Amino acid sequence: MHMDTLNTSASVGSRDSSMAVYRRIRKMIFAGKLGAGEALSQVQLAQEFDTSRGPVREALRMLQREGLIEAEANQRVRIVSFSASDLEQLCAMLALNAAMAIRMGEGRFTAADVATIERAIDRIETLGAGTGDNDGRAMGIDERRRIAFRRLLTVLCRHSGAHVKQLINDILDRLAVVRQLYTLSGSSPPYPLANRFPELREAALRQDAVAMAQIIVDKIAEISRKAVIFLADHYRPDMLDTYVVGARAAVAGELSAASPNGAMEGYDTMTIKVRALPGSRLECVVTPS
Description:
The chain folds into 2 domains: 3-79, Orthogonal Bundle (Arc Repressor Mutant, subunit A); 84-252, Four Helix Bundle (Hemerythrin (Met), subunit A) (Up-down Bundle). It has a 3-stranded antiparallel sheet. It has a 3-stranded antiparallel sheet with strand order 4-5-6, with helices on one face. The model is unreliable at 8-15, 132-138, 255-272 and 276-284 (pLDDT under 50). It has helices spanning 17-30, 42-49, 53-65, 84-103, 111-128, 141-156, 162-184, 197-205, 209-231, 238-252, and strands at 39-41, 69-71, 76-79, 254-258, 269-277, 281-288. By secondary structure, it is mainly α. The chain is elongated and about 60 Å long. The N and C termini lie far apart (54 Å). α4 (84-103) packs parallel to α10, α8 runs antiparallel to α9 and α9 (209-231) runs antiparallel to α10 (238-252). Residues 15-82 form the HTH gntR-type domain.
C-alpha cells in the first residue's frame, strides 16, 4: 500500500473525520492510486490520517457498503477486484429482481405513470440515436445512456415497495462502481441501447406489467451479455441466461426449473408459482416434483 499518498487534514476530534477519510480513500480508488486487490491496514491508515482507528473503521464500513473494498482477517481490507463472473452475477440479480419488481406493479400503474415512462423512453431513444444535449455536464453519451436507462427502471419499479426498490438501487450502484473501475483501466464496455423500446411503449400504454417486465429482462440481458463478453471474450454467461429464462417465466406466473446444487435435497426439479398480492407483495409457492 502506498501510504505516502494518503496525506489528509482529518484528525482526532473532528466530527467530519470519518467522512474525510472516506472521501480521500474513495477519490484515490477512482484515481487509480489504489489498485484492485491492494490491501489496506487500519493501523497504518489511522497513523497516516493522524486520527484514531474509530473514524478509519467507520470510513472503511462506508466503502465496504459501497462495494469498493472487502473485509479480510486481522482487521485488514482489500480494494475489490471484479471478474467477468462477478459482473455476470450482478447482472443476473438485476434481471431477476427488476422483472419481479415491475410485475408487482400489475394493476397499479396510472396514466401519470405511463406518461413518465413515455418521457423516459423518449430520452433513451434520443440518446440511442446518438443525439441529445449534454445536460450542462461534460459527460459521454454512454454515461448518459446508463443514467437514462436507470431512470426508466426507477419508474417501472415504483410500485414494488421500498425494500425491493432499495435492493435494485443497491445492485445498480454496484454496477456503476464496476463500470467506473473498468473505465479507469481503459476497458469499459460501450452501453448499447437496441430497438425494443417501441414494444415497451406499447406495453406501457396497455399498462401490461407482465409484458413490460419481460421486455426489460431482455434489455438487461442484451446489455449484460455485451458487457461481460467485452471484458472476457471467451466467457459464456450461462448463469445470466438461466436467470433470464427464469425471470421471464416467473413474471408470467409459473416456472419449472432444475433444483440448484441440492437446494431441495432429494428432488431434481421444482415448480415455482408466483402471483401478485395486495400491498406490493408476492406469493411464491415452491412445489418439489
